Each structure stands twice: as structure tokens, then as C-alpha cells.
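Figure S7 source data.
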Amino acid sequence: MGHFRLLFCGIPVARFVNSQSRVIPASCTLSFGNRCMKKEELGILVVDDEFIVRESLTKWFREDGFRVDAAPDGLTALKKLQAEQWNLVLTDIRMPGMDGLELLQRVKRINPQCVVIIVTAFATVETAVRALKEGAYDYITKPIDPDYLNHIVNNGLEQQQLQLENQRLRNAVSELTAGSAIIGECAEMRRVIELVETVAPAETTVLITGENGTGKELVARGIHQASARRFSPLITFNCGSLGELLTADELFGHEPGANPDAHEMQKGKIELADGGSLFLDDIGSLDLKSQAELLRSLEMKQIIRLGGVDPINVSVRMLCASQEDLEKAVHEGRFREDLYYRLTVFEIKLPPLRARRGDVAKLAHFFLGKYARSMNRKMQGFSPEAMLALKAYEWPGNVRELQNVVERALVVARGPMIEREHLILHTDSVSLSTGKRLEDMERAHIAVILRETGWNISRSATILDIDRVTLYHKIERYGLKRQAQPAPLR
Ligand SMILES: Nc1ncnc2c1ncn2[C@@H]1O[C@H](COP(=O)(O)OP(=O)(O)OP(=O)(O)O)[C@@H](O)[C@H]1O
Ligand SMILES: [Mg+2]
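C-alpha cells for the predicted magnesium ion complex:
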């Protein structure tokens, strides 16, 4: 089989031609670090005023598997660069109109990441140095050496892809860390953040308690990310989601034949978290048998897969969350006392949102910014009425509910401002949870309106469509009391 190149005026026109004159396809992928990229996804634009040079270079790269196009002059090239994404521009230096150096500067303005390689028949050190200073990746002189051409094109693309990959990773990391920012400036939340920072570097088991949506999982992620284990996985398991058998299977894994469905060995969550952290959500729902096994694993730092006999060493940092009072579960015999003491070595209690209304504005702005960015919207903020309503609301679903309310408001709002009517607050959920009698509902409704208006009696009476005297009577009758004012807007 022949293996030779055809050159025209020093330009390669075909490669690897076999005895039947058929072109043998070159490899269709390029490897960059541990990433592979299909060549057809990489675009090369050839710019030269000589037809034969354009043709032969286009053919050369096309046969190699790249997406290729050509332009006879700088202006045509710029149009193509604006219309489509090109990874690499191979340009002649001397062309009528715009020369290669000017094209280089303009390409870099359109796409700073584009690799530009200058082709010149007049290799003077001066032009080459100028081109490199202006941001060219490299230059090549005519007559072109095909091996050298391949070498610099592949290197240029490799460097570009590594830079892009680097940028993607940086973005991913900053997204990850931004996603785990714990917002809170009230004294209780400052204390929580302090506790997270204190406990993170230690190996201590942490119990995070709080109502639903108060940020238990966020705190667990915060601890893991601030710990030395942050480069290893954080595995999450919800203890209340499965029955007793499946829970054990999920936590400890199994050997083949451990049950009729266990055809292959499967690692459990504890083993998967080896080297990292395991977040056991809703730990209060864990069945007593799994509790005993978990305690054993914690103490021995070993697990035994279901159906197995050999203990396996594991190094896992345990983070647990519970909505319910575990002490009560211990009293009721649903939770092992020894495990309870093991888990409560370090406890972080998250306050409900209604107990820290001072953080509502900050959180609302944080979520507004986050969703506005993801929806590509420019938002100014909340109207005073909207903010008043947010700060007065009970937030039975805590921070998660606030997050959902803001996201929904952003979808509904057309303008740059979130108005009161864009907020859907389930004020009736308060009355439903307090009782079903008409009187209970009236009491809860009046309480919400009073809170929303900051106990402005005239405004509340107008909204409720009753006179002020009637409102005073109802306040007295229902024993409604003005609560401490929320902290001022920051
Ligand atoms: N202090 C906070 N700052 C920023 N975001 C928060 C905060 N607290 C909670 N969130 C956000 O609210 C949502 C709910 O939080 P998370 O899932 O951590 O709550 P949870 O206590 O685990 O809830 P559940 O008990 O229902 O499992 C998440 O999207 C989280 O990022
Ligand atoms: Mg949770």
C-alpha cells in the first residue's frame, strides 16, 4: 500500500493514497487530555486569495475529517466568522484588501478563543513576531510541510479545547459553590454558619434538625464542601423512602444471591461514600434493624454487605437530618438511644423562616437574582407591597416555599418589578392547619392581613371590608397580638 503525499506548489493536495488511488480515511477523532472530540465538530476556515491554495488546503483538512470552508479575502472570511463558529483560521498574509495581520486582529475581536495560524511565503522574522504578538497561535511558511502543518493545527486545537474545558470546569465549580451559599444574616443563621465552619474540618457526625425546607440538605452540602473530603463524593440517602429490606440493601449493598433479585454484587450507599460523606436524610424514619446495623458500622468503621460475611473497611463522614424531634422518637421506642447519642454529638438546629423574618428580604433578592439570571431576565426587585407581604407571611414551607414563590412570581411578572399580585401565598393553608371552623378561619385570615399591613388598622379594615370598630372587637375577641417587628430591610 502506497503511503505518499501529493504536493502542489508546496501545498498538500491529498494524503495517504493507496494503490487504487483511494484515500484512506484518517482518524476521525482528536484526543485532548482525557477528552475526545470528533473532528467534524471542529471547524477550520482557510483564507487565501489563490484558488489552488484554498482548494488544496480545504481538501486536505476535509479528508482528515474536519469541517472546512474557505474564503478568498478577509472580508468574506469575517462574514463567515460572524455567521458560524470556527475553531481555527489558516490565513495567508499577503492578500489584496485586508491583509492577514489585519484579519488576525479582527478575528480575535469576534472570537478571542479562535486559533489563527498565519501562512506566509515571505517569512521574515519581523512579520512572524508581529503576528505572534497580535495573538496568532503560530505561523507556517510556504512551501508548506504537511507534517508540520498537521502538527501545529492539532496543537493549536488541543490548546484551545483545553482552555475551553478549563473555563467550563471553572464555571461548573463556581455554580456549585454559588448553589451552596447559605444566606442568612440574623443572629441564629450567623451562628449556624459559624457552626458549619467549625465542624466541617472535624470528622464528627453532625445532626441537622429543622422544619421542612429550612435548608438541612444545604447545610449538609456546606459541611461536606468545607471539609477535607470535598473532592470525594457526598452520597445522599432518604431513610424514609423505602421499606426495611430495601433500605438495608441500599445502605449496605449485597453479595450475589443475597436475595432472589441479587444477581450481581452491588455496593451500598455507605460503601459508595467511602472517602467522602454520607447524608442520611430523615434519619428518624430509619427502621430499628437498620439503626442497629448503622450503629455497628459507625463504631467499627466497617460494613458487611447483605449475604456477605467479610467486613469491608470504610471511611465515611456521617451527616444526618431530621425534621422530627429524635428525642421524642427515642421515648416512643422508635429510635435507638445509643444511636441517638452517637448522632447528637454535634447538632445544628435550623430556625424556621417565620422566626427570622429579617432574612426574608435578603433570601428573596438572592432567589430573584438566581432565577432572573437563569431566565435571562433583567429584574429591579420587589415593590414595597410585595416585600411587605413576603415579610408578613408565615412561610409554613420555609425557605423552599419562598424560593418557589419567587420563581413563580418571576414567570408571571412581565415587567422588571415583582408586584404584590405576582406572589401566590397560600394564606389559606394557615387557616386549614389551625382548624376548620369558620371562626378559626376568620381569626387566621385577620391575623394574616394585620401582619401584611404591619398592623395598620385602617388599611386592614379596608381590605377586610369591615369598619375599624368591628376590627378592634375581632382582635380582642380572638386575642390577636402584635408580634415583634421584623428586622429592617438590609
Ligand atoms: N439559608 C439559605 N440560603 C439559600 N438557600 C437556601 C437556604 N435555606 C434553604 N435554601 C434553599 O431552599 C431549598 C430547600 O432547602 P433544603 O432542601 O436544604 O431544605 P431541607 O431542610 O432539606 O428540606 P426538607 O426537610 O423538605 O428535606 C433549597 O433549594 C436550598 O438551596
Ligand atoms: Mg431535605
